[in-house]
């Protein structure tokens, strides 16, 4: 036990005569012993810590790698959201190794190091083999039971239980020579071409997460017709995985975030429907019983789909639609509980955004609650704010999930020195007393255009500040007047929601934000947005943003008019779909510019900086012919490999669970192209590359002898596709910015390449 020895304590250990003489001399000896006691205490603490460093639970941080090295622990990359730390994994290594060779141990360790749901599938159990008369295995039929819909839906998926013919190709990643840059696809590095053989084990890793939306009003889109999504988009409903006990069981269907199929919810309604489950519906405050619901497809175009089954509440889980029979009348309110799927915490939603709130939202003197007696509407709250004097700081809070439709444009005035935050949040009430707000389980959908005006102040001062957080805006934002410091965090900007329901190649799109005021600084973080039109004297910074213009040939970033250059643009960890023209690019890092020129385009380059003497573009993917500042380790490296190194996406349609997610056909150079070895683009922050690398590092240690394993990334599919228009022979019905009447890409037919 450590003892704190002071100078007086040490003096008592000496003969009393020395104490008397030292007191007469002014206490010099006691002061010296005080210093010696402090140093002795440091030495004593260090000796005690040396003993504690022998145990992983009490060791210092610097000693953790050394203790891990004693048991052969290989360090891995830290992944956000993982339920482990290097200290915890070193401590759990013994527990893992006691179960080494079992399927549940391999699955659990892969799930722990990747921070994702992992399912281990022993493919030798579904590999067709000759039956032995001495040991008949009726659980492994020789033929696929095509009449069983559940089996047919799971074919080629993680839970495939149908017998397959043996595939002699290996499931492990093939041995190959790696080029620089590596043009091989991601799938090549994760698994081989085979999958069904006796030594094969498939590890499926889910790429998307499910986000729970609880007690949200459904959006009426017609007579007795509703959508779960408040923007009116068709979105598949997801399963909310329950919390699991480690080493409890092999991952099953209810443990993973996947879209709910009609067959699943029809045959196992109790697993998905309930007040604490993945899906539930209230009509005028009354819970709808499961026996009153008809699970069916509500097919048809937007706003014109059928009204479902008579006497029932019809729900389409694949499109997120609700239809009420006539017997249910016209209810005042329909509340829903559901989950949507996405890969990252971007665009606002049910996840916690509190750490991203500015100090203005909590320290301000002005507070307006939309729906309160003083400010019943958002227009009223903004009107009250516009009357505040210069120097006012405050917030406008929109509670929970709400949709606000405004006929007129919302005019927000930001005077010099003022700071306003508009956010969606959840109110906390304890014992009837308000205890604050949390930016979680809330998202406000505002269907209106917003005009932000920077007002001049007679007393001068700093520029006004405006922050938007947790909002989904179905309209454009126009900034004019004096300079404003504007930040948009965790928002979704849909200037043309009807157009975004279509595929990603339909355009052009109207600007989501237009900046007319000189000197304005615009910061956008963790946001999904459309094109930006910014005056050349303003500055823009994008961080973890998906800026989608609808097509690589459409304009994503430009000045007030398409013929002018935009303001200074800084891009980090973002994905830009469309052409970019900026005055300068001080920094572009870990970003993807999916841009190209249309035929007979007037632009000099798809990514065009007016001044190239300043700035740097590093670890980015952009057209080789771009006019930018000096580049460092960017892709492609030449015109010859530009096509081979082009990034590919799983989906570029807003509302798709895999929107903006890199496809497994993406070149490995893009997958590992960031400055930290991660993937380039807006999904850099989900650390998917690091999670896969950690899994590949742990597999050999826990894989049974003689077995081989491959990793398969599970990308959700859109279950409710927009009705397709059939193209007539020789013509392409849909147009995008790349078509100008002379491009052969807009024409199809035999021999078109000879024209």
Low-confidence stretches: 723-734, 741-748
| Contiguous helical run count | 15
Instruction: Please give the largest β-sheet.
Output: 14 strands, mixed
Structural class: alpha/beta
Q: What can you tell me about this protein's structure?
A:
- This protein starts with 6 loop residues before the first helix and ends in a 41-residue tail after the last strand.
- The chain is built from 15 helices and 38 strands.
- Strands 12, 13, 16, 17, 20, 23, 26, 28, 30, 31, 33, 34, 36 and 37 form a 14-stranded mixed beta sheet that branches. An 8-stranded parallel beta sheet has the order 15-19-22-25-27-29-32-35. A 5-stranded mixed beta sheet has the order 4-5-10-9-8.
- The chain is an alpha/beta fold and 755 residues long.
- Helix 6 runs antiparallel to helix 15 (688-702).
- It is globular and about 105 Å long.
- The longest helix is centred in the first third of the chain and has 25 residues, at 28-52.
- The protein is 17% helix and 25% strand.
Q: Can you tag this structure with a few keywords?
A:
17% helix; 755 residues; 15 helices; 14-stranded mixed sheet
Secondary structure elements and their pairing?
Elements: H1 7-12, H2 16-24, H3 28-52, H4 64-70, H5 86-98, H6 103-114, E1 118-122, H7 149-153, H8 186-190, E2 200-206, E3 209-217, E4 219-222, E5 225-227, H9 262-267, H10 269-272, E6 280-283, E7 286-287, E8 293-295, E9 313-316, E10 321-324, E11 334-342, H11 360-363, E12 366-370, H12 378-386, E13 393-399, E14 401-405, E15 410-415, E16 419-430, E17 433-438, E18 443-447, E19 450-455, E20 464-469, E21 471-473, E22 477-481, E23 484-489, E24 492-493, H13 497-500, E25 513-515, E26 521-529, E27 532-534, E28 539-548, E29 555-558, E30 568-572, E31 575-577, E32 579-582, E33 587-589, E34 592-594, E35 607-609, E36 616-618, E37 631-632, H14 668-671, H15 688-702, E38 708-714
Parallel strand pairs: 2-38, 8-9, 12-13, 13-16, 14-18, 15-19, 16-20, 18-21, 19-22, 20-23, 21-24, 22-25, 23-26, 25-27, 26-28, 27-29, 28-30, 28-31, 29-32, 30-33, 31-34, 32-35, 33-36, 36-37
Antiparallel strand pairs: 1-2, 3-11, 4-5, 5-10, 6-7, 6-11, 9-10, 16-17
Helix pairs in contact: 6-15
């Amino acid at each position: 036990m450590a003892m704190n020895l002071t100078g007086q304590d040490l003096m008592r250990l000496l003969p009393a005569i020395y104490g008397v003489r030292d007191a007469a001399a002014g206490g010099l000896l006691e002061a010296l012993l005080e210093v010696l006691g402090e140093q002795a205490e440091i030495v004593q603490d260090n000796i005690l810590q040396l003993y504690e460093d022998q145990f992983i639970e009490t060791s210092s941080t610097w000693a953790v790698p050394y203790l891990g090295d004693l048991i052969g622990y290989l360090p891995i990359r830290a992944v956000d959201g993982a339920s482990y730390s290097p200290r915890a994994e070193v401590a759990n290594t013994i527990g893992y190794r006691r179960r080494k060779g079992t399927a549940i141990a391999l699955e659990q360790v892969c799930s722990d190091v990747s921070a994702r749901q992992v399912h281990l599938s022993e493919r030798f159990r579904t590999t067709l083999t000759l039956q032995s008369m001495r040991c008949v295995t009726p659980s492994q039929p020789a033929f696929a039971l095509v009449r069983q819909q559940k089996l047919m839906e799971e074919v080629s998926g993680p839970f495939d239980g149908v017998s397959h013919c043996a595939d002699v190709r290996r499931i492990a990643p093939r041995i190959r020579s790696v080029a620089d840059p590596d043009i091989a696809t991601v799938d090549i590095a994760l698994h081989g071409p085979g999958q069904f053989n006796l030594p094969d084990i498939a590890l499926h890793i889910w790429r998307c997460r499910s986000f729970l939306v609880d007690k949200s009003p459904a959006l009426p889109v017609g007579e007795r017709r509703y959508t779960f999504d408040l923007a009116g988009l068709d979105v598949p409903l997801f399963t909310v995985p329950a919390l699991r006990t480690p080493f409890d069981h092999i991952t099953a269907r209810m443990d993973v975030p996947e879209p709910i199929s009609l067959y699943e919810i029809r045959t196992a309604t109790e697993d998905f429907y309930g007040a604490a489950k993945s899906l539930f519906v209230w009509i005028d405050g009354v819970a709808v019983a499961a026996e009153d619901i008809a699970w069916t497809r509500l097919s048809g175009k937007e706003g014109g789909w059928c009204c479902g089954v008579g006497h029932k509440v019809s729900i389409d889980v694949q499109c997120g639609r609700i239809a009420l029979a006539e017997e249910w009348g016209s209810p005042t309110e329909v509340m829903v509980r559901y989950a949507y799927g996405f890969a990252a915490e971007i665009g606002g939603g049910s996840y916690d955004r509190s750490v991203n709130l500015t100090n203005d939202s909590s320290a301000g003197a002005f507070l307006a609650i939309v729906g309160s007696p003083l400010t019943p509407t958002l227009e009223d709250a903004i009107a009250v704010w516009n009357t505040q004097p210069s120097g006012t700081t405050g917030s406008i809070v929109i509670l929970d999930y709400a949709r606000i439709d405004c006929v007129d444009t919302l005019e927000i005035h930001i005077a010099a020195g003022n700071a306003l935050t508009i956010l969606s949040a959840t109110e906390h009430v304890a014992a009837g007393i308000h205890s604050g707000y949390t930016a979680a389980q809330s998202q406000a959908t505002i269907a209106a255009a917003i005009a932000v005006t920077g007002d001049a102040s007679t007393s001068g001062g700093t520029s006004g500040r405006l922050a938007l957080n947790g909002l989904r805006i179905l309209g454009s934002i126009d900034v004019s007047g004096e300079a404003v410091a504007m930040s948009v965090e965790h928002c979704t900007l849909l200037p043309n929601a009807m157009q975004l329901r279509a595929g990603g190649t339909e355009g052009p799109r109207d600007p989501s934000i237009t900046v007319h005021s000189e000197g304005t600084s615009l910061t956008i973080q963790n946001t999904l947005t459309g094109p930006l039109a910014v005056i050349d004297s303003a500055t823009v910074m994008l961080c973890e943003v998906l800026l989608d213009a609808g097509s690589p040939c459409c304009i994503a970033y430009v000045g007030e008019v398409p013929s002018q250059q935009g303001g200074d643009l800084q891009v980090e960890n973002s994905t830009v779909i469309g052409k970019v023209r900026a005055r300068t690019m001080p920094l572009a890092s870990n970003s993807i510019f999916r841009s190209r020129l249309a035929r007979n385009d007037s632009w000099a380059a798809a990514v065009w900086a007016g001044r190239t003497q300043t700035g740097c573009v590093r670890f980015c993917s952009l057209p080789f012919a771009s006019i930018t500042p000096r580049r460092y380790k960017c892709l492609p490296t030449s015109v010859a490999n530009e096509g081979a190194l082009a990034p590919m996406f799983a989906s570029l349609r807003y509302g798709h669970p895999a929107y903006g997610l890199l496809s497994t056909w993406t070149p490995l150079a893009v997958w590992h192209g960031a400055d930290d070895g991660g993937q380039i683009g807006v999904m850099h922050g989900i650390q998917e590359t690091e999670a896969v690398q950690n899994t590949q590092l742990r597999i050999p240690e826990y894989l049974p002898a003689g077995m081989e394993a491959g990793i398969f990334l599970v990308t959700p599919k859109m279950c409710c596709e927009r009705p397709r228009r059939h193209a007539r022979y020789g013509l392409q019905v849909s147009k995008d910015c790349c078509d100008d009447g002379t491009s052969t890409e807009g024409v199809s037919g035999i021999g078109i390449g000879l024209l």
